[in-house]
Amino acid sequence: MTNFASARRKMVDGQVRTNDVTDLRIIDAMLEVPREAFVPDAQRAMAYLDLDIDVGSKRYLIKPVVIAKMLQAADIASSDRALVVGCASGYAAAIAGRLAAEVVATEADPALAATATAALAAVGAGNVTVVAAEAAAGAPDKAPYDVIVLDGATEVAPERLYEQLVMGGRLVGVFATEQPPRVEIVTRSPGDFGNRPLFDAYAPILPGLERPAAFVF
Length: 217
Description:
The protein has 217 residues and is an alpha/beta fold. The chain has one domain: Rossmann fold (3-Layer(aba) Sandwich). Helix content is 26%, strand content 28%. The chain is built from 6 helices and 9 strands. Strands 5-4-3-6-7-8-9 form a 7-stranded mixed beta sheet, with helices on one face. A two-stranded antiparallel sheet has the order 1-2. Strand 1 (53-56) and strand 2 form a beta hairpin. The longest helix has 13 residues, at 4-16. The radius of gyration is 16 Å and the shape is globular. The chain starts with a helix and ends in a 17-residue tail after the last strand.
């Protein structure tokens, strides 16, 4: 039988701390939130491995170190409202919920959104609300947001999401618009959105944020 508490500690000490994640709020959240609660029963033994874990519907829990470093870059304040795009079964939203005042999480697959809602309730993430919505659409009826986190990669500029940021707000995600993919932070300022690359990283592409198919003669 897997000792999940021990595995959780090893994940944080061996994957997260060793990759320059120094925000103690993120470290504490990742020590407290049971990642196995967001993984299908048959794959729970894999919950703390350095892997993108398939949770169905072409959705994944992305590697713990990638989500940790993105959340650290997002610099979420305890008063912030955050949007987690493509939350899959809800793990990243649960971690963000330990940092922010309120989190809205979107998931395109309604069944997976229901799974995320149940898992988040089970771990006491009462400040996280899951909405069934396409990744590119965000949740404009609940906007604006101080922070938006892509729980996966994008091959296109997610401009509809940019518009849901407050002035001075930031979006963090894996941008696979070029090779190699890299995490970038996009900050909204009056009349403009500024991109800054942070570090190379891979994550599965979020459905709805794929590059349009090229026309072939």
